[in-house]
Amino acid sequence: MSEDERAIRDLVATWIAASKSGDTPTVLSLMADDVLFLTPGRKPFGKEEFATTSGQMRDVSFEGESEVQEIEICGDRAWCRTHLTVTMVAPGGKPIRRSGYTLSILHKQPGGQWVIFRDANLLAAEQG
């Protein structure tokens, strides 16, 4: 495994760990300033909206697993395909579980850090 592939896998693991612990600043540090998130049923949104939404979900517990299925690196750009499962529970609420695939495009910054540039999240609510 190349150093870049290991760094991208570490980024995914750090994202999940920071999300579980509610560490929004760490999650935000893993994104390019001009990041765009693509999710079903809504217009793409960026880092500012992500930060605002994360702040509103401060009391929501989060559990998640991300299984990296493919990584392709082309110089200072890469893409990563994962299967993601998340469960969120608002205080006093029932668990909401979503799962599906994601496709992320990453940029390698001048200092060597990989960050998410675009992310297509195809999670759907699980029935059950």
Fold and architecture overview:
The chain has 128 residues and is α+β, with helices and mostly antiparallel strands. The protein has one domain (3-125): Nuclear Transport Factor 2, Chain: A, CATH 3.10.450. 27% of the residues lie in helices and 45% in strands. The protein has helices at 3-21, 24-29, 47-56; strands at residues 31-38, 61-74, 77-89, 96-108, 114-121, 124-125. Strands 1, 2, 3, 4, 5 and 6 form a 6-stranded mixed beta sheet that branches. The longest helix has 19 residues, at 3-21. 12% of the residues are buried. The mean pLDDT is 93.
Quickly list its features:
alpha+beta; 3 helices; 6 strands; 6-stranded mixed beta sheet; single chain; 27% helix; 128 residues; Nuclear Transport Factor 2, Chain: A
Total beta strands: 6
Helix content: 25-40%
Under the CATH scheme, the architecture is Roll
**Class by SSE composition:** alpha+beta
CATH level-1 class = Alpha Beta
Q: What is the subunit organization of this protein?
A: single chain
Gap between N and C termini? 38 Å
What is the overall silhouette? Answer: globular
Query: How much strand content do the residues show?
Result: over 45%
Strand and helix order: HHEHEEEEE
Total separate domains: 1
